[in-house]
């Protein structure tokens, strides 16, 4: 059974195993009568051919309270878009597919580029940003949820628990973040959270001194979880990072825009697994190495925006402090794994810590060389101010794609 511990800044909503998915679904259907709920699924076409997404659709078919499902489809040709139309057609809910590589949405993107408002690079952040823009353009949903399409342990209960805190009109929460243990195939996963983010936040607090922002991040059980839900009223002012710092960037935006008391984390699963990234130790532009650099930069940028002054000496101190803390944490994780009959390879764990320590310095050097770097995509309030018709153009582009390209 879960505990009921509360950390301080952020409310933690546990799964005490005393209610059922069916009960929550009935509540959400009642809430949804006046507070419509939209689900965003950012997807690569390749995920349609994997094992996870078909199982996710099996579960979504059971969900009675969703008003709409918005699917952002990346890296798809015309034939693949048509195939996606057929693939998702079994969904009982109203659903639309944003063919991000299609000529119509590419034309919308070109309009954004001409105003220097287009996302800087492809990826999940860009996909989610366009889906959020489409959802705002529809102007008929009060709640939007986002989760990945590669969760192989997905269940309808995960979605119900994720959206409940922000859909319930009696709760004050504007944003909810999922958390869960990362355990699969007899071992502990979640290396970037366990071995980078957790010890790095402790190290930053030791080197820089107390920071409310660091305490806020440290309250989250799984800050890199890709599952979150928000009330749509806050979407126009949310700046979505375009790099792999998406999850940390969103939490930073929540810290900037919202009271911590209006943010919660909710236990959505006790069994979670998804696609694993390679460490890519020899290529800092790929895999977990790239992710670690982007996450560090996202945290440094936020601290700098709040007045923290960084230097090469400070980054060296952060690295040294991080390294000692991370090695101590490996020992704790080993004990936790052993007590639960799980395997933990201390050699590979220490190798990951060495890579992350190197990337703490690498990301610091990048930050110092270009402290004005802004990988955030402009928020939709700015986009609407620059071109009030752009959202309408998105709606027309998606509708025209659906009309022209029939499923195959």
Describe the protein's architecture and organization.
By secondary structure, this protein is an alpha/beta fold. 49% of the residues lie in helices and 12% in strands. It contains 14 helices and ten strands. Strands 1-10-6-9-5-2-3-4 form an eight-stranded mixed β-sheet, sandwiched between helices. It is globular and about 60 Å long. The model has no long low-confidence stretch (mean pLDDT 93). GO terms for molecular function: glycosyltransferase activity.
Question: What features would you highlight for this structure?
Answer:
single chain; 408 residues; alpha/beta; eight-stranded mixed sheet; 49% helix; globular; glycosyltransferase activity; EC 2.4.1.266
Distance between the termini: 47 Å
Number of strands: 10
Following the backbone from N to C, one meets helices and strands in this order, namely EHEHEHEHHEHEEEHHEHEHHHHH
Helix proportion range: 40-55%
Low-confidence stretches: none
* Silhouette: globular
What is the secondary structure topology, with strand pairs?
Layout: E1 11-13, H1 21-32, E2 37-44, H2 52-60, E3 66-74, H3 78-87, E4 95-99, H4 103-114, H5 124-138, E5 143-146, H6 156-167, E6 175-179, E7 183-184, E8 187-188, H7 191-208, H8 212-218, E9 228-231, H9 246-257, E10 263-267, H10 287-305, H11 312-339, H12 346-369, H13 380-386, H14 390-404
Parallel strand pairs: 1-10, 2-3, 2-5, 3-4, 6-10
Antiparallel strand pairs: 5-9, 6-9, 7-8
């Amino acid at each position: 059974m879960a505990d009921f511990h509360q950390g301080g800044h952020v409310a933690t909503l546990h799964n005490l195993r005393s209610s059922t998915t069916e009960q929550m679904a009935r509540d959400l259907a009642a809430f949804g009568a006046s507070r419509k709920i939209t689900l965003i699924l950012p997807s690569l076409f390749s995920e349609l051919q994997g094992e996870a997404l078909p199982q996710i659709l099996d579960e979504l078919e059971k969900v009675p309270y969703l008003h709409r499902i918005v699917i952002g489809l990346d890296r798809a040709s015309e034939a693949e878009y048509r195939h996606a139309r057929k693939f998702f057609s079994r969904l009982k809910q109203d659903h639309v597919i944003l063919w991000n590589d299609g000529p119509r949405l590419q034309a919308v993107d070109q309009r954004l580029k001409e105003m220097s408002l287009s996302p800087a690079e492809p990826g999940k952040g860009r996909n989610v940003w366009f889906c959020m823009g489409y959802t705002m353009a529809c102007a008929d949903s009060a709640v939007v949820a986002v989760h990945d399409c590669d969760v192989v342990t997905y269940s309808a209960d995960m979605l119900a628990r994720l959206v409940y805190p922000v859909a319930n009109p009696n709760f004050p929460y504007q944003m909810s973040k999922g958390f869960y243990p990362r355990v699969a195939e007899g071992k502990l996963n979640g290396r970037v959270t366990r071995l980078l983010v957790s010890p790095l936040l402790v190290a930053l607090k030791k080197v820089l001194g107390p920071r409310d922002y660091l305490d806020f991040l440290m309250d989250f059980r799984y800050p890199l979880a890709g599952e979150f839900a928000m009330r749509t009223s806050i979407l126009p002012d949310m700046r979505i990072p375009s790099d792999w710092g998406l999850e940390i960037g969103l939490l930073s935006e929540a810290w900037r825009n919202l009271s911590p008391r209006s943010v919660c984390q909710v236990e959505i699963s006790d069994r979670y697994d998804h696609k694993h990234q390679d460490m890519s130790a020899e290529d800092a532009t790929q895999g977990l190495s790239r992710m670690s650099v982007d996450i560090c930069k996202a945290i440094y940028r936020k601290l700098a925006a709040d007045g923290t002054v960084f230097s090469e000496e400070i980054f060296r101190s952060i690295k040294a402090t991080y390294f000692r803390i991370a090695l101590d944490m490996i020992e704790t994780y080993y004990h936790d794994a052993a007590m639960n009959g799980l395997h933990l390879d201390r050699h590979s764990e220490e190798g990951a810590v060495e890579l992350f320590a190197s990337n703490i310095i690498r990301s610091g050097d990048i930050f110092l060389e270009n402290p004005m770097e802004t990988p955030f995509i402009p928020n939709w309030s700015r986009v609407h101010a620059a071109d009030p018709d752009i959202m309408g153009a998105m709606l027309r582009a998606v509708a025209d794609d659906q009309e022209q390209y029939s499923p195959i």
